[in-house]
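Hey, I was hoping to borrow your eyes for a little while. There's a protein on my desk that I can't quite get my head around. The fold is given in discrete form, as structure tokens running alongside the sequence. I'd be grateful if you could look everything over and explain what you see. Here's the protein in full, and shout if anything looks odd to you:
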Amino acid sequence: MAVFRGKASEAGEAKVAGERSLLLGIGISAIGIGMYVPFSLVFFHHVTGLSFTLVGLVMTVTGVAGLAFMPLAGSAVDRFGAKRVNLVLYGIRALGFALYPFAGSLPAFAAVALVTALADRSFSVVQQSLIGEVARGAARDRLQASTRALQNAGMGAGALLVSGVLALWGTGAFTWTAWANSLAFALAGLLVGRVRPVPAERSGPSAGRPAAGYRMVLRDRPFLGLTAANFLTALGYSALSVLFPLYLSTWLAAPDSLTGAAFTLNTALCAGIGVLVAGRVRRSGVRRTRSAALGALLFAAAFAGQIVLGTLRPGQSATLVALLVIVVVYTLGELVHSPSGGALSVSAAPEPVRGRYLATYQLSYSLATALAPSLFTALLAVDGRLPWAVLTAAALGAALALLRLERHLPAEAVHAEPPAAAAARRPATAAA
């Protein structure tokens, strides 16, 4: 039995070469992101000296341009490899933040912001591709969970750090914060540079070159179905930051402080138990499609809870307790869905064109994020419970789609490790 357990461990839980450096780099870059994202408009206003209106306009335009660049990033990954493109993007972000304090004119700020936005928007595609490049089997699920936990912890630490700096030195410290961000991205790039990709699982004369372009992605109906299902779930990921504060203040007439409490609880749970929850799901041997569907169902339960709460409208104390319970259920859905969904998309993408596949998949998140504000505000204007009803239906639809897609996706994508190895490991674990 011990032999079976060892083989399963090697197949699914082997450490990635340079894994500690990779995760440390991700954590450091997340601290840098946390130092400016919560204060983005104020941050760039003080760093550049431009008006809030101009800063907001430039950020919107460059953000949209960044979305258009994502397919090119996917092509670059397929041509040059995810690690190389990842290092280039870290370098661009480091250079961009180093230059922001000198970009006092509108053209200079627009130029620096555009180049930095192209790197920022494409980074998720490249990072997902990098996980696929350096890990196999269940190690991908583990890295997905560890990455998400570190990103939440790092962003929270970055926000606290810059809040303390501003409290001590005032808004003039934003300039030093920009340079600190530059240093964080440069250091993260150096650390990530130590990770080593695993040998490619392909052979033949076409090895090392993509077999096809985006036409191959568009012909892959199961993967497009997976992307559509993720769009439905991604709307739910936007709910906490976009819909929740509006719902609290308008429909429930609750104090704004509850929004801060909900965000704090969500961040603490993601950072504190994210790896633990993902590890429990992974060791259970459940198929990725089913664990991702379970996460979507937990989202649906949390959204249905908001409908009940919005109908009953109890007193302030009961509302507080109910909201915190709902946030816990919502966060559990996030922790169950995210590692499985991410590993599922990475593993369902053919290796020669993984970058293009994941660029297409990541667009589902970007489109959901872009659509969420207008969709939620329009529905909320009709009835405060209506956006939660739409989100409940979307999450249930995503769960159903994932289950129906299971038999159409590649076996190595659905299973974190081969079924035979998983079956051998379970009795070995029980015997131990």
